[in-house]
Write a structure and sequence with these properties.
This protein is 0% helix and 47% strand. The chain has a domain at 41-104: Carboxypeptidase-like, regulatory domain (Immunoglobulin-like, Sandwich), CATH 2.60.40.1120. It has no helices and eight strands.
Amino acid sequence: MTTQSAELQIPNAGAGTWTYEIQNTGTQSTQYSLSVTTAGTGIVSGMVADAQTGRGLDSITVASSGGLSTVTTDGYYALLHPAGMFSLQTRSGSYVTASRSVTAASC
């Protein structure tokens, strides 16, 4: 077994959790997974509810202006996002689209 090391630099990578796949193109192909968490990541969480009943809505897409999204479970969502200001938008075929500005603090 041969041990090799290398430094991996990703210029302009935004804050968040990233997964990279590195493939050895030598004679014995091996794949490696690497997870990197950069500083400046925040967690945004909340509830999407019916305005008249207050009931949590299931399977609603919550998307950020930063390009990340998640889906609600019983109305609740949590989204890892680079810290800072951005907007969230809910999308559903049955309800009116809603948007809100939020700020995620770095964890």
